[in-house]
Amino acid sequence: MRQTPQREGILRVLNASDRPLTVEEISARMGEDRSGLPTIYRNLERFILEGWAETMLGQDQVMRFVRCNSKRHHHHLECEKCGRMVEVDFCGVEDSLRQLEIASGFQITKHQLSLFGLCSDCQTAEKRH
Amino acid sequence: MRQTPQREGILRVLNASDRPLTVEEISARMGEDRSGLPTIYRNLERFILEGWAETMLGQDQVMRFVRCNSKRHHHHLECEKCGRMVEVDFCGVEDSLRQLEIASGFQITKHQLSLFGLCSDCQTAEKRH
DNA sequence: TTTGTTGCAAAGGGTTTGCAGGAGA
DNA sequence: TCTCCTGCAAACCCTTTGCAACAAA
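Structure tokens for the assembled complex are given below, as produced in the milestone run.
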């Protein structure tokens, strides 16, 4: 894979962001090396294949992209107030899946957990008020 | 909310299906009372507001709809082979969330778990082969 | 020089909107 | 009769594709 200013730009933007971004947002943050939307889509596709990024579909039907910090199984925790997103390397769900397998008769092979809440900053902001 | 053949049709189709359906699929299964796509979208929006249905976005970017059997907190279990979907009324995840809260500093208020695997029918079919 | 990349414009396709006609109640 | 609902067509908008020009190696 060739090294281009656009590719570096996209990765730089993703690395600097603490939340998932749409292609529009990525483009806007690329500054000098800003590139067209198709280029960003095409590169993100490659990055995802390489395991460098992942995609998440919000309820607004728009694709968002995040840099993967860990290639291992992990979940995302999103602050409902400020939008910040944290990657949790740890998965405590596995045990409960055994119960679900018994209850349902399914053999569970994959799961995806989305978590929402209030980050510590927003919690203290809420208390202060 | 008025009673119309289209509304009854949509609910009938949803009730009869063992998996999430796209609007196209719903329309195709409505038979006599088939209606236009916009009508289906508009009605599903209402149904979701009423808690009668819910929406799920597949990785193909297409909205799918399922009838809610339970208004309580529940999760969905989808067979990766035949597409059948089961609603699980039971959630064993709550305990693990406490650990995640401690690890992350977040106060978790909501979660969404998507489960994938093999249903019992597909398991036996696999063994036979 | 070779071949992968980008940019632009246009196409694609699922979802939404506007509005006039139609049908519940 | 009075609203609410439906149908149609068009608009929307995010995403993908085609192709010629460009640039990394």
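Residues 22 and 81 of chain B are 18 Å apart (CA to CA). Chain B has five helices and five strands. Further analysis is deferred to the final report.
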